[in-house]
Amino acid sequence: MLARKTLPEQFLRWNRRWGAPFGRNRLPHRLALTVAPARWRPWIVGPFGFQPNNSATRHFEYPWAFHATTLRRGMTAVDLGGSLAGLQFMLAKAGLAVVNVDPSDAAPMGWPVDAATFRALNRAFGTNVELRRAFLEDAGLEDASVDRVFCISTLEHVPDDAIASILREIRRILRPAGQCVLTVDLFLDLAPFTDRATNVSGRNVDLSWVVETSGLTLTTGDRSELNGFPEFDPRRVQANLGDLLYATHVPALTQALVLTRPTS
User: Across the chain, what does the average pLDDT equal?
Assistant: First the structure.
């Protein structure tokens, strides 16, 4: 499916409650993250105040991902490339055992992605998210040990061979009936809308190929709104742009889908 401009009331309430996607605005972020004592900062800006977001589509992506599948206490979840984004902490607050698999040591908002930062944030939010600074294949996750994998706006930045490796790992670590929750950008200035193949933000991924390569089953997602499927018609997408949510910094829509590992 493609994200719509008008969000469901459930998503709006979730965003208001948790300050998603940019953090709470009781104080300007820069002031809160630099002047306020460090132990106060998580309470001031909330779980979504530590990962800068440059896309308005996160208003849809985070609540959609949280509500896209059934979540139960005791489940195990992996957040791929979670950095310091708030979704991982929301999953943990819902009772899931969350592992953030991210090889980057970047410092969003000046807070490094390291064990010390996660200790501070977990203490503030009452969570226990585990950070594994590694690529997925090196993260030490056992076969069929994970109930949910979340991958938010990541695949469009990754070359095909790396995507194939990620997908193989996702299938390996998912339990039977486990699910992978994906959002993938769809750039309006690239093929199949234009002749260009890439831009500074990435490229348009063939999601039909993603599903086939993963060995998983598409269980949520409209094939007519997912790039690469035979039913996808770029002309129809362009004709309906007025109803669709798109990023302001680049001309990009959000594709949302859930893949499920077969039980046999």
Answer: 91
Distances (CA, A) of 11 to 3, 95, 210, 226: 12, 20, 27, 22
The answer as to whether 79 is a domain residue is: yes
Residue 1 lies in a domain: no
Cα–Cα distance between 213 and 210 in angstroms, integer?
A: 5
The domain of 142 spans 9-260
Predicted pLDDT at 35: 52
Name the strand (E) or helix (H) holding 33.
helix 29-34
Residue 212 inside a domain? The answer is yes
User: Other C-beta atoms within 10 Å of 222: how many?
Assistant: 15
Query: How many domains in the chain?
Result: 1
Residue-wise pLDDT for 76-126, tens only, equals: 999 999 999 999 999 999 999 999 999 987 777 667 899 999 998 999 899
Higher-confidence position of 59 and 104: 59
* Residue 3 within any structural domain of the chain: no
CA angle, 145 as apex, 216 and 138 as ends, to 5°?
90
Give all strands (DSSP E) within 170-226, no chain letters.
Answer: 174-187, 198-199, 202-203, 217-220
- From the list 77, 101, 66, the residue with the least C-alpha distance to 174 is 77
> What is the CB neighbour count within 10 angstroms for residue 137?
15
CATH code, domain carrying 147: 3.40.50.150
Task: Output the pTM of the full model.
Answer: 0.92
pLDDT at 67 over 60: yes
